[in-house]
Amino acid sequence: MFFHIVLERNMQLHPRHFGRNLREHIISKLMKDVEGTCSGRHGFVVAITSVENIGKGLIRDGTGFVTFPVKYQCVVFRPFKGEILEAVVSMVNKMGFFAEAGPVQIFVSNHLIPDDMEFQSGDMPNYTTSDGSVKIQKDSEVRLKIIGTRVDATEIFCIGTIKDDFLGVINDPTTI
Amino acid sequence: MSGEEEENAAELKIGDEFLKAKCLMNCEVAIILDHKYEQLQQTSDDPMNQVSQVFEKSLQYVKRFSRYKNPDAVRQVREILSRYQLAEFELCVLGNLCPETVEEAIAMVPSIKTRGRAHDDEAIEKMLNDLSLIKKFE
């Protein structure tokens, strides 16, 4: 799920940036440092939407660098265990398939794919029901439930399932 | 972290910080990111090089899965859903997935049926009807 939250960060700035463009320098450095990063607690920082407040700077002993506490609003993407979302299948193999929901990768193991779907190898590997009516392959859109997350310092990885009511393929890229 | 173990969106256990935060539906994120991308386009020749991979992937994703394209409809969806005493998180799951039946809605957001909440099937059905109307007239 995407959230709009307020975060705080201490920005260290070199004295050469001091002057009337100080605020612009702090904001552009903030965007460069923060956008695109990921933390286990807040998830992926997608975009900074506004800077609420830049506090009083504090000179660091010995270096001349100044630390500014900056409060900013940003859009983050944070997956939760138990959350249901839609994703695009990016890779299919006999172990299961990978799907992407925005910046996050979700793996669905073949144990968590309904039992009536069988793996078919070939140049377009896929999972298909015995009557061929439902097919999961690269670029399919699926609705899945996240059942586990692994949080790294710089990445979040999810395990999902489509073995539940109202989950599974939403549309098939070959039929449209 | 002890909170990590208990996290479960189905029971609305997503941590205090996120529970109080403003949730965004995919269509709202699309509007925000599109706006930001346009701003970048004005200031640089090659905006795709300026943005992070996370931004690019998110933009593609929300564009693909936005149920409502026009900003007025998006505002209406939020307004209608907010009449039903939903948590922000529940509101956005419903707005993103647009379930068609009451059973589907409950499967998507089990927490709307938990104790102490005044949601009977009729209220949920009415809510889903309101939602599909917006889609129809968009």
UniProtKB/TrEMBL annotation, chain A:
Biological processes, Gene Ontology terms: positive regulation of nuclear-transcribed mRNA poly(A) tail shortening; positive regulation of translational initiation; transcription initiation at RNA polymerase II promoter
Location (main, coarse): nucleus
Ranges for domain RNA polymerase Rpb7-like N-terminal: 8-64
Keyword Transcription recorded: yes
Compartments reported by the entry: Nucleus
GO MF annotations in UniProt: single-stranded DNA binding; single-stranded RNA binding; translation initiation factor binding
Keywords, ordered alphabetically: DNA-directed RNA polymerase, Nucleus, Transcription
Transmembrane region(s): none
Assigned GO CC terms: P-body; RNA polymerase II, core complex
InterPro entries: NA-bd_OB-fold, RNA_pol_Rpb7-like_N_sf, Rpb7-like, Rpb7-like_N, S1_domain
Signal peptide span: none
Record domain S1 motif: where: 79-156
SUPFAM superfamilies: N-terminal, heterodimerisation domain of RBP7 (RpoE), Nucleic acid-binding proteins
Protein family (similarity comment): Belongs to the eukaryotic RPB7/RPC8 RNA polymerase subunit family.
Function: DNA-dependent RNA polymerase which catalyzes the transcription of DNA into RNA using the four ribonucleoside triphosphates as substrates.
Protein name: DNA-directed RNA polymerase subunit
TrEMBL record, chain B:
One of the GO biological process terms: DNA-templated transcription initiation
The protein, known as: RNA polymerase Rpb4/RPC9 core domain-containing protein
UniProt entry keywords in alphabetical sequence: Nucleus
Keyword Nucleus: yes
Lineage: Eukaryota, Viridiplantae, Streptophyta, Embryophyta, Tracheophyta
GO cellular component assignments: nucleus; RNA polymerase complex
Family: Belongs to the eukaryotic RPB4 RNA polymerase subunit family.
UniProt xrefs under Pfam families: RNA_pol_Rpb4
Residue stretches making up the RNA polymerase Rpb4/RPC9 core domain: 16-138
Cleavable signal peptide: none
InterPro entries tied to this protein: HRDC-like_sf, RNA_pol_Rpb4/RPC9_core, Rpb4-like, Rpb4/RPC9, Rpb4/RPC9_sf
Subcellular location: Nucleus
